[in-house]
Write a structure and sequence with these properties.
This protein is mostly helical. It has a single domain, classed as Ammonium transporter fold. 57% of the residues lie in helices and 3% in strands. The strands form two sheets. A three-stranded antiparallel β-sheet has the order 1-4-5.
C-alpha cells in the first residue's frame, strides 16, 4: 500500500521531533553511566558496552526490518508486515525542498514553484518518525542488561539482543505504538482495539524489559558470592550523572511522544517533571525511615522510578495525578528492590524492582487517576470513570508481561543450551572486563596499594549482613 500521507512537513513539529529523537538516544549513554556506576570496578566497561552495543545491533535491525514489523500493516493482530518497509523501502524519496519560481527564457511565464512532497507520519517526515522510534527500541534492549551484570558473555549478549528485539520488542511495539493511519491502515491491537493508554512505553518499554530482565537473571543464575558478599557500587558520581542524563533525555521520550510541537508536548513535559520530583523525594523518605539514611543512590533510583511510572500516564493525568503516581512509584519501587533477596533471584541492578514494578504502577494508575482535563481525555476510577479504563490497562499490561516472559524464556534457554550464556567461574572471579574485553577501567597498578581496595570501598544502602536495599 502507499504511505498514508505524502506532502510537506511542518517545520516546527519536525524540529522538535529531531531534537526529541536525539534526546532519547542520549538516554542510552546515560543508562550506561547509571548502570556502570552501580557495578564493581572490574565490570564497569562491560556494563557500559552492553548499553552501547545495543545501539549498534538494534539500530541496524530497525532500519532493515524492525520498523516494518512494528509499523507495517497489521498481520493477524500480532505484527506488522515485515516486507512493507523493508530497508525503509518507500520512505526515503520524493521532493524534499520547495523550489522558487524561476522566470523562463524569452519572456515566457515563470515556472511554477514545486512544493515539497515526501512521506509523512502525521505532520513530520516519515524518516524522522523512524529515527524517533528507533531510539525507543535501542534503550529497551539496553535496559535488560542491568539484570545480568558481571556474568553474561558479551558475544551471547549481542545475539540475545538481536533475537529479543526481533521476536519480542518489534511485535510488542506494533501492539502498543502502531495507530491507524499513521504508518499503516490497520494498527496494533492494544492501541486501536483494546484502547489501553500507554503514551510513551510503560508496557512496550518498561514492563517488557523488566520481564525480560527477570527471566534472564533466573536463567543465568546468581553471581558468585551473591548475596553474602558485598557487591557495592564502585562510582556513585557515575550513577548520579547517568540519572541526570536520563531525566534530561526523558523529555524527548515523553514530550516527544506527542509527535509534534504542541500543547500535548507541553502538558506531558509538566506531568513528567512533577512525577519525577515526587518519586525522588518519596524514595528518599522511604530510605530514611527504613535504613536511617537518605542516599545518593536512592535519589538517582527515585528519579528513574518516577520517570518510568509517568511514562505511560503522562498524557492522561493532571498535576495531582502525576504527584500521586510519583509518590506511589517512589515508595513501592524502593520497597520492591528488596524482593530479589526474598525470592532469591539476582537482579543485579534492580531492573525488576524499578522498571517492571514502575511500569506496572504507571500503567494501572491510568485507570485510577486519569482525568478528562488531560490530553487523553479519559476519566479513571477516582474521577468518576468507573473501571472501564482500568481493565483495559490491566489487560494491556498483562499481555505484554506474559508475552515477554514466554518469549524471553524461549530465547534464553535456546542460547543457553547452544552457544552458552555465562562466564566460567575463573573469568567471573577475575572480572568480566578483563575476561571479555581485555581491558580495565582503572589502572590500579600505577596507584600501588591505594588501588587494591577501590572496587569495594564505596558505601551503599545495602548492608552486607542483611541486605535490604541495592548493590551493584
Amino acid at each position: 500500500m502507499d504511505f498514508p500521507l505524502i506532502g510537506a512537513a511542518d517545520t516546527g513539529d519536525t524540529a522538535w521531533m529531531l531534537a526529541s529523537a536525539a534526546l532519547v538516544l542520549l538516554m542510552t549513554p546515560g543508562l550506561a553511566f547509571f548502570y556502570g556506576g552501580m557495578v564493581r570496578a572490574k565490570g564497569v566497561l562491560n556494563m557500559m558496552m552492553m548499553s552501547l552495543s545495543a545501539m549498534g545491533v538494534v539500530g541496524l535491525l530497525w532500519v532493515l526490518f524492525g520498523f516494518s514489523v512494528a509499523f507495517g500493516e497489521d498481520k493477524g493482530n500480532f505484527f506488522g508486515d515485515p516486507t512493507q518497509y523493508l530497508g525503509l523501502k518507500g520512505l526515503i524519496g520524493g521532493t524534499y525542498l520547495a523550489t522558487a519560481a524561476v522566470p523562463a527564457a524569452d519572456g515566457a511565464p515563470a515556472v511554477d514553484a514545486v512544493a515539497s512532497a515526501i512521506p509523512l507520519a502525521g505532520t513530520i517526515p516519515a524518516t524522522v518518525f523512524v529515527a524517533f522510534q528507533a531510539m525507543f527500541a535501542i534503550i529497551t534492549v539496553a535496559l535488560i542488561s542491568g539484570a545480568i551484570a558481571d556474568r553474561m558473555r558479551f558475544g551471547p549478549w549481542l545475539v540475545f539482543a538481536g533475537l529479543w528485539a526481533t521476536i519480542v520488542y518489534f511485535p510488542v511495539a506494533h501492539w502498543v505504538f502502531a495507530f491507524d493511519g499513521v504508518t499503516a491502515t490497520d494498527g496494533g491491537w492494544i492501541a486501536t482495539k483494546l484502547k489501553a493508554i500507554d503514551f510513551a512505553g510503560g508496557t512496550a518499554v518498561h514492563i517488557n524489559a523488566g520481564a525480560a530482565g527477570l527471566v534472564l537473571a533466573i536463567v543465568l543464575g546468581k553471581r558468585r558470592g551473591w548475596p553474602k558478599e558485598p557487591m557495592r557500587p564502585h562510582n556513585l558520581p557515575f550513577v548520579m550523572l547517568g540519572a541526570g542524563l536520563l531525566w534530561f533525555g526523558w523529555y524527548g521520550f515523553n514530550a516527544g511522544s506527542a509527535i509534534g510541537s504542541n500543547g500535548i508536548a507541553g502538558a506531558t513535559f509538566i506531568t513528567t517533571t512533577v512525577a519525577t520530583c515526587a518519586a525522588m523525594l518519596a524514595w528518599l523518605l522511604t530510605e530514611r525511615l527504613r535504613d536511617g539514611h537518605a542516599t545518593s543512590l536512592g535519589a538517582a533510583s527515585g528519579i528513574v522510578a518516577g520517570l518510568v511510572a509517568i511514562t505511560p500516564s503522562c498524557s492522561s493525568v493532571n498535576v495531582w495525578g502525576a504527584l500521586v503516581i510519583g509518590v506511589v512509584a517512589g515508595v513501592l519501587c524502593a520497597l520492591a528492590v528488596g524482593l530479589k533477596y526474598r525470592f532469591g533471584f539476582d537482579d543485579s541492578l534492580d531492573v525488576v524492582g524499578v522498571h517492571l514494578v514502575g511500569g506496572i504502577i504507571g500503567t494501572l494508575m491510568v485507570g485510577l487517576v486519569a482525568t478528562k482535563d488531560a490530553p487523553a481525555a479519559v476519566d479513571g476510577l477516582f474521577y468518576g470513570g468507573g473501571v472501564d479504563q482500568l481493565w483495559r490497562q490491566a489487560v494491556g499490561a498483562g499481555a505484554v508481561l506474559t508475552y515477554s516472559l514466554v518469549g524471553t524464556t524461549v530465547i534464553a534457554l535456546a542460547l543457553k543450551h547452544t552457544i552458552g550464556l555465562r562466564l566460567d567461574d575463573e573469568s567471573e572471579a577475575m572480572g568480566i572486563d578483563e575476561a571479555e574485553h581485555a581491558e580495565t577501567a582503572y589502572d590500579f597498578a600505577t596507584l600501588g596499594s591505594l588501588g587494591r581496595g577501590a572496587s569495594s570501598h564505596t558505601s551503599s544502602h545495602a548492608p552486607a549482613a542483611a541486605p535490604a536495599g541495592r548493590e551493584g
